[in-house]
Design brief:
The chain is built from ten helices and eight strands. It is of the alpha/beta class and 245 residues long. Strands 5-4-1-6-7-8 form a six-stranded parallel β-sheet, with helices on both faces. Helix 1 packs across helix 2. The structure holds magnesium ion.
């Protein structure tokens, strides 16, 4: 019924495209899993650990909508030094969820533009998407038109006004957008309230509450979305467009 009108698909990242392996979040600083690695690098360069941790904490307070590179210059560190460490952590601690990754590949190969909306800052998004083979964290290139990350949309998508800002940033009428995620509030109720036409709620081992707005479809596997009538026209096209990044 909407098939010809859909112009964009928005993907969540955490528990949709990737998830943390067990014990991935055992070592954190200020609630963050990469901050200890930044403190390690600072310590290796000669800054005492308490001083490094104080600088990280102050930088996060000064700029609430930070991204990881913001922490490096105050500690005399470069992204070239930090990136391999960040990448190693992701390779060891992130699990890729192939059903949703496969859907991103399929949609983009058929020419459907996709973006992510995530409670991670830009480099955090890129590192997770890189694990999926969907981005390159060094160049910033990816299969996605936009990364609606916390630094860009100034907040997490569960917060008041953030979905509205994200949709404005995307610049596409919400009635032409589909959202896919695992959180009933952030990935379904809030975007539907802002006019997103259809939401697919992935139940990653957890059953969602029963009271969801019409237009939300609960699924167990992202592959089910490809069979939804909403994409019938798209996947009937004979020629695919291979997306390079
Ligand atoms: Mg999620």
């Amino acid at each position: 019924m909407y098939s010809s009108g859909i112009a964009h698909v928005l993907f969540d990242i955490d528990n949709t495209l990737t998830r943390y392996r067990s014990h991935a979040l055992d070592r954190i600083l200020e609630g963050n899993f990469l901050f200890p690695l930044i403190a390690d690098l600072a310590e290796e360069s000669g800054i005492p650990r308490p001083e490094a941790e104080r600088i990280i904490s102050e930088t996060a307070k000064k700029n609430v909508f930070w991204d990881y590179p913001d922490f490096l210059p105050p500690l005399g560190l470069s992204l070239a030094a930090a990136l391999p460490v960040f990448r190693k952590w992701h390779a060891e601690n992130m699990e890729v969820l192939p059903d949703a990754v496969g859907l991103v590949v399929k949609l983009t190969d058929y020419g459907m533009p996709v973006s992510v909306i995530s409670n991670n800052p830009r480099l955090g998004c890129l590192l997770k998407l890189e694990c999926c083979g969907l981005a390159d964290a060094a160049s910033g290139k990816s299969r996605f038109s936009k990364l609606l990350s916390t630094d860009l949309i100034r907040g997490c998508k569960g917060e008041k006004g953030v979905w509205k800002r994200a949709l404005k940033e995307l610049g596409i009428s919400p009635d032409r957008i589909i959202a896919i995620g695992d959180n009933p509030e952030e990935d379904a109720r809030l975007p539907m309230r802002e006019g997103v036409v259809r939401c697919f709620l992935l139940e990653r081992g957890v059953s969602a509450p029963l009271h969801l707005p019409p237009g939300v479809r609960r699924i167990r596997n992202a592959g089910e979305i490809a069979n939804d009538p909403i994409f019938q026209d798209l996947f009937q096209k004979r020629n695919t467009v291979i997306t390079e990044f």
